[in-house]
């Protein structure tokens, strides 16, 4: 996805864009080996949907035709710490689908709508061509492909910065947060009476446990169910044990769906030991004509659902940097990396703070993380009873609002009152159900 949206942005500024993809790109929407996380439950945040709709007119209609499920960006069931958040309509239409359907549809529309873009799949780049301190192309099977700009969207394990380090350029500092994430995913049929709301996300209290679950609707009347663990036993691949794992979550919703249907797939696994950020913005020297983008800069815990949006926002920042400095400017890389750092700062800080709720998480912890987590815990409790707090929290999670918007004096007062009300309701089961709207 990072490469596709970057190609779309570059197509506005250059005569020709050529994507070189190591994988075979199938015509149909099926998982591929180069995107192992693509088999698991994905959520495209509202800001990402808006960007894609602007870059690829008609994309939403084509996704719906392919079976993507329309929903309000706030129309989810979010259960955390023993109670559900109150429903909060954001008024923003989003689509839920499998990652392969999204990627394949974007791929088709890119080639259809941008005639100056082409793709060569099953093509592995062997190295960079460096002349006079500038990258002027890449090598593929001994042949040279020259270019004014090379952008590596090759993921968290990108090797191109290491190749540059071998040629004397400094390597970026790396921040790594050890989350020890293990996921197991099954796809099951979706019945009309499974849920009254479109998306279910079950999140356990990571201060007390290390397990979570997510269930999202996808094309073909299917649920994609992903169970995850942090610093704990991985979700088992044996069906009965997998169902038992789901039954340990703080709500029976996912386990109940698993119990009343036959799965369409075996348990598919995925592991991610660390979230990782390369601080390319701190590099004092980098070759002109070359950039990295996407997970190569910041690879977030995928359960926070911010990876695709982060890549899209980085691509948008690249377009602004090119418009200001020009494609071949020696200043382009530094200017873009500074803008990319601003893009990833908020999601990195929020994701890392959420990960550090689990006492087993280790790594560089930002100043104030403990205080931030204590306040966000109150925000989470306030979301059970206050529609305004839940709505603004969802806006922040969808990167439609800055995290600071949850910390204005008026919002802090609302959070404190609603969080206190939430605690009272949990202590008094004879009263209204926790999570009922209060305002």
UniProtKB/TrEMBL annotation:
The keyword Oxidoreductase applies. GO terms for molecular function: monooxygenase activity. InterPro entries: FAD/NAD-bd_sf. Keywords: Monooxygenase, Oxidoreductase. The keyword Oxidoreductase applies. This is FAD-binding monooxygenase.
């Amino acid at each position: 996805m990072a490469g596709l949206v970057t190609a779309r942005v570059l197509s506005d500024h250059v005569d020709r864009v050529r994507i070189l993809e190591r994988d075979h790109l199938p015509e149909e929407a099926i998982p591929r080996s180069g995107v192992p996380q693509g088999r698991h439950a994905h959520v495209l945040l509202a800001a990402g949907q808006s960007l894609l709709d602007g870059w690829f007119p008609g994309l939403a209609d084509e996704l719906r035709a392919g079976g993507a499920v329309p929903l309000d960006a706030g129309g989810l069931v979010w259960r955390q710490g023993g109670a559900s958040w109150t429903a909060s309509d954001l008024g923003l239409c989003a689509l839920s689908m499998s990652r392969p359907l999204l990627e394949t549809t974007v791929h088709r529309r890119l080639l259809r709508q941008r005639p100056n873009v082409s793709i060569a799949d099953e093509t592995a780049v062997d190295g960079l061509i460096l002349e006079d301190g500038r990258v002027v192309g890449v090598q593929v099977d001994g042949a040279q492909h020259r270019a004014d700009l090379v952008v590596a969207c090759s993921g968290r394990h990108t090797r191109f910065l290491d190749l540059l380090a071998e040629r004397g350029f400094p390597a970026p500092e790396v921040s790594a947060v050890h989350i020890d994430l293990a996921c197991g995913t099954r796809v099951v049929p979706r019945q009309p009476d499974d849920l009254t709301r479109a998306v279910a996300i079950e999140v356990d209290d990571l201060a007390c446990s290390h397990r979570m679950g997510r269930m999202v609707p996808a094309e073909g009347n299917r649920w994609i169910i992903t169970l995850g663990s942090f610093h704990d036993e991985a979700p088992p691949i044996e069906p009965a044990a997998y169902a038992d794992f789901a039954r340990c979550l703080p709500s029976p919703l996912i386990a109940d769906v698993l119990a009343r249907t036959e799965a369409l797939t075996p348990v598919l696994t995925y592991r991610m030991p660390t979230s990782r950020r390369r601080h390319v913005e701190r590099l004092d020297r980098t070759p002109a004509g070359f950039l990295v983008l996407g997970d190569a800069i910041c690879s977030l815990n995928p359960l926070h659902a911010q990876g695709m949006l982060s890549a899209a926002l980085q691509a948008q920042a690249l377009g602004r940097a090119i418009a200001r400095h020009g494609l071949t400017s020696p200043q382009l890389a530094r200017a873009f990396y500074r803008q990319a750092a601003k893009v990833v700062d908020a999601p990195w800080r929020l994701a890392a703070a959420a990960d550090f709720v689990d006492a087993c998480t280790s790594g560089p912890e930002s100043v104030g993380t403990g205080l931030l987590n204590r306040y966000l815990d109150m925000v989470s409790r306030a979301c059970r009873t206050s529609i305004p707090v839940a709505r603004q929290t969802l806006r922040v999670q969808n990167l439609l609002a800055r995290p600071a918007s949850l910390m204005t004096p008026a919002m802090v007062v609302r959070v404190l009152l609603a969080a206190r009300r939430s605690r009272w309701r949990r202590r008094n089961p004879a009263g209204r159900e926790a999570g009922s709207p209060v305002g």
